[in-house]
Specification:
Layout (H helix, E strand, L loop, with lengths): L2 H18 L10 H7 L14 H9 L10 H16 L3 E5 L5 H8 L5 E5 L2 H18 L13 E5 L1 H4 L2 H10 L6 E6 L14 E6 L3 E8 L1
Parallel strand pairs: 1-2, 1-3, 3-4
Antiparallel strand pairs: 4-6, 5-6
Helix pairs in contact: 1-2, 3-5, 4-5
Length: 216
């Protein structure tokens, strides 16, 4: 069996088990979730105008002890501003984690259709997380069953898939979307082949050498 797929299946299993053993109030305290979400530093300045208090509240959902906004959340804000500049009427996301990028987009003003492709058990946790965000922030975060394929986003997940999974998403999602913004981060044996037409640039050479930013 392909060693990368074996590694990836094990990562997914641990991720799913970590979420299933947690609640929306404490999942970010789980070491596996912390590792998967990433503990990074992200440089300022932040875009303006920005409701940093609201975004910090969203970022703290899942922590028993609130803290300042994380570098991971700051990176999401940067990506969200880039996506919002494209003004997409609908978005599909490949590998949405707990749904925090979607919540961040809405906090910054997005009101279009949204759908997240993910593992069924992760989608179940996403629904609980987004309901908690709604309850704590008064944001309205509906997911449609089939958002139109106007714009595709994926942050790291698509580049990390095994070849078979990646090929399915490229054929059935990426190539059907008119436009997209993807951060591609192959590692642990994942193929770095980018087999769809797009503009490829470095994401952030100083912060993340090797990561690619794909747009079409």
């Amino acid at each position: 069996m392909d060693s990368h797929k074996t590694w990836l299946d094990n990562e997914y299993r641990q991720w799913s088990e970590a979420l299933l053993s947690s609640t929306v109030h404490n999942f970010k305290d789980h070491p596996m979730v912390t590792r998967m979400l990433g503990e990074i530093e992200w440089p300022s300045p932040l875009p303006h105008p920005l409701d940093l208090e609201l975004l910090t509240r969203i970022d703290n959902i899942g922590r028993n002890v609130p803290s300042e906004i994380s570098g991971t959340a700051l990176r999401m804000i940067r990506y969200a501003k880039i996506v919002l500049e494209r003004n997409p009427p609908s978005i599909v996301e490949i590998g949405g984690g707990v749904g925090q990028f979607y919540a961040t987009l809405h906090a910054l003003g997005y009101t279009g259709e949204y759908y997240i492709y993910d593992l069924p058990e992760v989608q179940a946790f996403q629904r609980r997380y987004l309901q908690e965000v709604e309850w704590q922030t008064d944001l309205h975060l509906p997911q449609t069953l089939h958002a139109s394929r106007e714009f595709c986003v994926s942050f790291y997940a698509l580049g990390e898939f095994d070849d078979e999974t990646k090929a399915w998403y490229v054929q059935h999602v990426v190539r059907e979307c008119l436009h997209g913004f993807v951060i591609w981060n192959p590692h642990s044996g994942a193929s770095d082949v980018i087999d769809f037409p797009c503009t490829v640039t470095d994401e952030s050479p100083l912060m993340s050498p090797g990561n690619k930013q794909l747009e079409w």
